[in-house]
Amino acid sequence: MKLFLLHFLAATAASAFVMSPPHMWTKLILTHHWPTTFCEMEHCQSTIDSWTLHGLWPDKGIECNSSWHFNVSLIEDLIPDMDKSWPDLISPESPKFWKYEWQKHGTCAAKAESLNSQHKYFSKALELYHKADLDSVLKKFGITPSKQYYPFAHIEEVIDSFYGIKSKIQCVHPSKNAVYQILGQIEICFTPDFSLMDCEKESSKKPLNSSVKAEAKSGFSVCDPNVPVYYPPMI
Fold this sequence. Notes:
Layout: H1 2-13, E1 28-33, H2 35-42, E2 52-58, H3 79-85, H4 96-109, H5 118-132, H6 134-140, E3 149-150, H7 152-163, E4 168-172, E5 181-190, E6 196-197, H8 210-213, E7 220-222, E8 229-230
Parallel strand pairs: 5-8
Antiparallel strand pairs: 1-2, 1-5, 3-8, 4-5, 4-7, 5-6
Keywords: Disulfide bond, Endonuclease, Endoplasmic reticulum, Glycoprotein, Hydrolase, Lyase, Lysosome, Nuclease, Secreted, Signal
Family: Belongs to the RNase T2 family.
Signal peptide: 1-16
C-alpha cells in the first residue's frame, strides 16, 4: 500500500505547480460513476462494465469563462481513450458531455498553468483516472458487481486504506426505508500538485463550492454507513 502511494506521488511530482492567487481552487475531485447505476437512473443502455470518468472538478468556480468554447479537434488524439474511459453514457456518439465538463469545470481548472488548455485538462483527467485505477482496486479486493449486498464499511475501508486518503462514496437510495442502497459514484481527491488528499479536507477556510456539491446527478448522495450496499451487475 505504501509502495503504491510512493509510486503514485513520484509519478505526479513532475507535474507540480504553485498556486498563489487567493481565489484559486484548492482541490481537484476525480469523480467516477458506475455505468449500470447511472443508466438505471437515466434510462440509457450501456455495455460498459468498468468504472468510468464523470469528471475532474475543481472545488471552486463554475463556468469560469463562457467565451472559451470547447473544440473537440484540440483533443483529437485523446478521443480513443476518452470514448472508453470518459464516455457519454446517454449519447455515446456525441462530444456534448465533454463540452459540458469543459465549460462547467475545465474553464475553472484552467486557472492553473498546468491545466490551462483543453488538452492539458482532459489529458490530466485521463492520467489521474488511469493511475488511480479504481476499477482494478475494487476487483483486487474482491469487490465486484453482485446480487449480494456489501457492508458499506468494507467498501470504504478497501478504498481509503489502499489510497491512504478519505474518499467520498455516493449511492442511490431507492426509498426512505429501503433495506439497501445502490453504489453509484466514487470521488478521489487531489491537491493542486496532483497528490492524493482527503476529499473532506479543506486547504482553505472557505467552504466547498455548493455547486460542486450538487454536481452529482440527482439521486446520488453520500452513502449511509448503516445500510447494505448493492453493487449492481451490468444489465
